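Bumping my old thread because nobody answered last time. Still need a sequence for this structure:
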């Protein structure tokens, strides 16, 4: 449902990891497609628990969408900005980039709609390895949608302990969605398996939201294609991080729609509980978890939910609550906002069902993507600009609004708030006052793009390239 209608491989020696990566197929090393019909590792031993891969730190690096499982959007590096400069621009990649780039040690991990995962050198942007995972799905072969071709759209996740990158590819064979586990050091495929929600039609399910890693499992959300065609339903599917065992799943109990599609995916707490937001369903009578915030336990059982009292009207007007991912706040609270632009402050442990919010107020003309939260402020991406909210125990108020249309999902890095607007301009704002401190043109961007930052480097996608900036 889009606008408009719609960690751990045991690594004891770097040499051992490199040798294992080189044992992958020659086609894989040179960017050829892997055979998605095989579910065995390509010459690599099964991943087991162990220390983090050399040079990769879960605290300092940017290994998942918005930095951490809670989706705070806050980088580990908050040293003050210096003279920000463009460091490099990558070569053209094999497809557009919708996923947020990730930073793992000396590599920048990028996924494309060409169904490829790239590792770029952190210091130069040169391609270190490329894993092409198969043939993406041609847009003309789908009943609706606005991404062509459609390959890897949701943001992957890196498991520092296993030295593994997890990505979901949409493959023309079927079509179907396949979860791949790739060696971080060299890009070889450790294992892969189908990840489509059981009983649903893969052709009309879109894996747009970011994957999450918690408790030794990968969680993959699903929504629908732009245009809301076909019998799709919102869902979350989970697989063990070592590829073993059965899948578990949650499918929204609706007759149709209620996609879980916002780019940030689930917000996850320290106990492995997940909060997701759904879009509109086709129901206008009985509540069916459309336009809701749903609390799922680690086994993907629904624990609780919240819905606005006007959920049926939101269904009829395609005004998704699920256009933005929920944001976990300190002290057990949760913030949610959708296309209506009405913000909700919730008790994460007691969502309260219909009308159960602690507080609500109009924030903007419509919220999309993922907010960031730091220092008592929530930075909300809206169609009419970035809005900073000051959150108290039982309410929130507007602290500032951006003077430009920085409507991409913001992050906090180098003591500034960064966002990309729809025209492809990157801006850094003072976090307290909202005054611009740095701007740079990137070029044409995809919808809902968000930068990433770690150890003094910020990276952002523009079309089929990555642009990097040093922060001081």
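Sorry it took so long. Here it is:
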């Amino acid at each position: 449902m889009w606008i408009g209608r719609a960690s751990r491989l045991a690594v004891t020696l770097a040499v051992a990891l490199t040798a294992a990566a080189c044992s992958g197929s020659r086609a894989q090393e040179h960017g050829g497609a892997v055979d998605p019909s095989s579910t065995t590792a390509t010459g690599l031993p099964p991943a087991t628990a162990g220390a983090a891969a050399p040079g990769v730190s879960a605290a300092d690096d940017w290994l998942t969408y918005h930095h951490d499982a809670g989706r705070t959007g806050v980088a580990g590096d908050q040293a003050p900005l210096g003279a920000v400069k463009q460091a490099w621009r990558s070569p053209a990649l094999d497809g557009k980039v919708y996923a947020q780039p990730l930073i793992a040690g000396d590599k920048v991990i990028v996924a494309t709609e060409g169904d490829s995962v790239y590792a770029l050198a952190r210091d130069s942007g040169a391609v270190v390895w490329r894993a092409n995972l198969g043939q993406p799905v041609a847009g003309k072969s789908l009943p609706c949608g606005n991404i062509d071709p459609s390959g890897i759209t949701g943001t992957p996740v890196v498991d520092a302990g296993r030295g593994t990158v997890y990505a979901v590819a949409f493959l023309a064979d079927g079509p179907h969605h396949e979860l791949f586990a790739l060696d971080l050091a060299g890009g070889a495929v450790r294992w892969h398996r189908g990840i489509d929600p059981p009983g649903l039609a893969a052709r009309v399910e879109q894996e747009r939201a970011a994957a999450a890693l918690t408790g030794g499992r990968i969680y993959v959300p699903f929504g629908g294609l732009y245009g809301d065609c076909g019998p799709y339903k919102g869902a979350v599917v989970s697989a063990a991080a070592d590829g073993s065992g059965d899948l578990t799943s949650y499918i929204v109990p609706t007759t149709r729609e209620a996609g879980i599609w916002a780019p940030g995916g689930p917000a996850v707490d320290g106990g492995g509980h997940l909060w997701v937001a759904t879009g509109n369903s086709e129901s206008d009578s009985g509540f069916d978890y459309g336009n809701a915030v749903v609390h799922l336990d680690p086994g993907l059982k629904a624990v609780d939910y919240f819905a606005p009292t006007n959920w049926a009207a939101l269904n009829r007007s395609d005004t998704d609550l699920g256009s933005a991912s929920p944001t976990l706040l300190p002290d057990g609270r949760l913030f949610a906002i959708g296309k209506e632009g009405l913000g909700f402050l919730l008790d994460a442990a007691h969502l309260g069902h219909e009308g159960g919010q602690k507080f609500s107020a109009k924030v903007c003309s419509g919220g999309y993507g993922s907010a960031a939260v730091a220092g008592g402020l929530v930075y909300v991406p809206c169609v009419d600009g970035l809005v900073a909210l000051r959150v108290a125990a039982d309410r929130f108020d507007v602290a500032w609004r951006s003077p430009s249309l920085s409507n991409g999902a913001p992050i906090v890095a180098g003591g500034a708030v960064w966002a990309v607007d729809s025209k492809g301009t990157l801006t850094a704002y003072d976090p307290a006052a909202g005054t611009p401190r740095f701007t740079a043109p990137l070029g044409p961007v995809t919808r809902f793009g968000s930068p990433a930052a770690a150890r003094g480097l910020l990276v952002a996608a523009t079309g089929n390239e990555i642009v990097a900036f040093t922060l001081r």
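The helical segments are 14-22, 26-29, 311-316. Let me know if any region looks off to you.
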